[in-house]
Design goal:
The complex is a heterodimer. Chain A is α/β, with parallel strands linked by helices. In chain A, 25% of the residues lie in helices and 23% in strands. Chain B is of the alpha+beta class. Chain B has one domain: Phosphoribosylformylglycinamidine synthase subunit PurS (Mth169, Chain: A, 2-Layer Sandwich), CATH 3.30.1280. The chains are: A alpha/beta, B alpha+beta.
């Protein structure tokens, strides 16, 4: 059977690359951590991979704003190939800092446009928020990443700039109409949450979005930190061993197979 | 020529870093301040033209959705006539490493501007409320500036 290959892009300040690698490898993929300088030197190397992952962390120290310097670097030096990879329909995931990079370079919500039309801005609290929260999977989502999950799962968040802000109200309507909203922060029973379960004050409680086709996922929570039930504060999960975050990675690996 | 770039949160969005600072001021049991706004500051010097400074401000230093920017010749300040507004600028002291500026120099090259230039980063706080000079000084030295490595300028 084909071994699915995953490229995990890292740079100075990336700090969730090992966990992301482990999550994909647990799902049967071969995952490789590649420094951005290597990819800039050999751009076409990207097409040797089936899945592209932008892990969490504090790229370039989050200087200026979270993900800003990396998004600027990718847009100007790798924009053409990242867009081509995205348009090929291959799965791409941006977790936390990776999601911030996606929206700031315009890969999300629509790589066809490839312009920034939304942002992930400072949390309403004005400070870093780190805790387990509940997220609700939107029923109509076309994302290939969130199949086979219960309606509500818990995932950890850890960010200072996670408040999703669209350029205007019309964009929210478009995201909703195209079923691009993937996850929303939720209370345990599926209602609209209040702080601290709503960690940042995002528009419409948005925690994750996809492109219209559903192969690109950007999310603020960290599924790679919940691949084992043991990682959950109440040891919850499935098959008495795994965490629900594992399913997210498994979905992409199975999609490629 | 040096250009001073100030990044401003658009009025329709909450200045959450200012709000967070206000809660810290309240935690010091100081009640005269009603609102705080925060703006990052940058001074770019060297061969950078005004147009290049504008590109750097628009494409790199500010967020296209939530922020806007103002560019002035360095050390120009707007005059404040309001008795309830104080402005404080905080900058690193000379010889203190400014790591953010090093990242910006890399990012400006990524933008395609290859000229040599220097940049320094700072912070600006707008404090709205009636407070004495002594209280303002206390807020500044206890909360806004780390006087070991930073210097501040109160503009009032």
């Amino acid at each position: 059977m084909k071994k699915v290959k995953v490229l995990i892009l890292r740079t100075a300040g990336t700090n969730c690359d090992y966990e992301t690698q482990m999550a994909f490898e647990l799902c049967g993929a071969f995952a490789e951590r590649v420094h951005i300088d290597i990819l800039i030197e050999k751009k076409n190397k990207i097409f040797k991979y089936d899945i592209l992952a932008f892990p969490g962390g504090f790229s370039y120290g989050d200087d200026i704003a979270s993900g800003k310097i990396l998004s600027n670097e990718i847009k100007n030096k790798l924009g053409d190939i990242v867009k081509k990879f995205a348009m090929s329909g291959r799965p791409i995931i941006g977790i936390c800092n990776g999601f911030q990079v996606f929206v700031k370079m315009g890969l999300l919500p629509d790589p066809n446009v490839f312009e920034q039309v939304s942002s992930l801005y400072y949390n309403d609290s004005g400070r870093f928020e780190c805790r387990w929260v509940y997220v609700k999977i939107e029923k109509k989502t076309r994302s290939i990443w969130v199949k086979n999950l219960p309606e509500i799962i818990s995932l950890p968040v850890a960010h200072g700039e996670g408040k999703f802000i669209p350029k205007n109200k019309n964009l929210l309507k478009v995201l909703s109409k195209n079923n691009q909203i993937v996850l929303k922060y939720s209370s345990k029973d599926g209602n609209i949450p209040k702080y601290p379960l709503d960690p940042n004050g995002s528009s419409e409680q948005i925690a994750a979005i996809s492109n219209p086709e559903g192969n690109i996922l950007g999310l603020m929570p960290h599924p790679e930190r919940y691949i084992f039930a043991l990682q959950h504060p109440n040891r919850e999960g499935f098959d008495s061993k795994y965490g629900w975050g594992k399913i997210i990675f498994q979905n992409a690996v199975d999609f490629v197979k | 020529m040096n250009f001073k770039i100030e990044i401003l949160t658009k009025k329709c969005f909450e200045n959450s870093r200012g709000k967070n600072m206000l809660s810290k001021i309240y935690s010091m049991h100081i009640n005269g301040i009603k609102k705080v706004e925060y703006s990052p500051l940058y001074v770019i010097g060297g061969n950078i033209s005004f147009d290049e400074a504008r590109i750097i401000a628009a494409d790199l230093l500010s967020d296209k959705i939530t922020e806007t920017y103002a560019i002035a010749e360095s050390d120009q300040h707007c005059k404040i006539s309001s008795p309830i507004l104080s402005m404080i600028e905080v900058w690193y002291k000379k010889n203190v490493t400014d790591t953010v500026s090093e990242s910006i120099i890399k990012a400006v090259k990524d933008l395609g501007i290859s000229k040599k230039f220097k940049i320094k980063t700072g912070h600006k706080y707008y404090l709205y409320g009636r407070i004495s000079k002594a209280v303002l000084s206390r807020i500044t030295t206890k909360l806004l500036a780390n006087t070991l490595i930073q210097e501040y300028k109160i503009i009032k």
